[in-house]
Amino acid sequence: MLDILKNRRSIRKFTQTKIPPEILLLLQEALLRAPTSKNNRPWDFIFVDDASLLQALATCKPHGASFLKDAPLAVVLAADESKSDVWVEDCAIAAITLQYLAQSMDIGSCWIQVRKRQHASGISAEKAVQQVLNLPAHMRVASIMALGYKAETRAGIPKEKLEFQKIKFNRYS
Ligand SMILES: Cc1cc2nc3c(=O)[nH]c(=O)nc-3n(C[C@H](O)[C@H](O)[C@H](O)COP(=O)(O)O)c2cc1C
User: Which end of the chain is more exposed for a tag (fewer CB within 10 A), N or C?
Assistant: First the structure.
């Protein structure tokens, strides 16, 4: 596990190789095993591999999403906000679980923030994603994960660069 943590970096360049169905199933299993508050499981996960949909999702906000158009896979993390007041946390945990499993199989990933971001037209990035995917308004969109085999190499952060001063013991000061 520590090796996975050490080596995971955000990957934004992918080969065009499709992720095979048996690996997709493992990614799905990881998402569905993510813990949720009160075991509410308010989320749904939309796997997108259609090129025109990927292109449309890549424009959900002006910055930080464009690389999605060249990714072979996006997983959209959405949740029914009426099912949980902490759907944001539940989606975040599922997202990082997905990233760590992907890294364990040498699959690259990058988180694309959607909630609280704006589409170029001024509507929310969430609304833009809802429109592309036919998601009803109560299905809130937290983020999109871009996934694929890596076409760039990024070294893990060296241990010496970790900010151990951010760790406090017993009291903050
Ligand atoms: C909550 C969150 C939102 C993020 N949003 C984006 C994003 O919209 N676009 C993007 O390219 N990267 C995004 N990232 C990736 C971060 O930029 C990246 O994790 C950070 O720079 C550290 O780099 P590393 O993941 O390679 O360690 C996001 C990461 C997190 C955790």
Answer: C
Tens digit of each residue's pLDDT (9 = 90 or more) over 64-90? 999 999 999 999 999 999 999 999 999
The answer to whether residue 108 sits within a structural domain is yes
Whether 173 maps to a domain, the answer reads no
- Give the global pTM: 0.98
Tokens of 113: 């923030």
Q: How far apart are CA 169 and CA 144, in angstroms?
A: 35
What is the rounded CA–CA span in Å between residue 5 and residue 42? 27
- CATH at 145: 3.40.109.10
Q: Residue 109 corresponds to which amino acid?
A: S
pLDDT (mean) for 55-66: 98
Which residue type is seen at 82? S
Average pLDDT over residues 149-172: 98
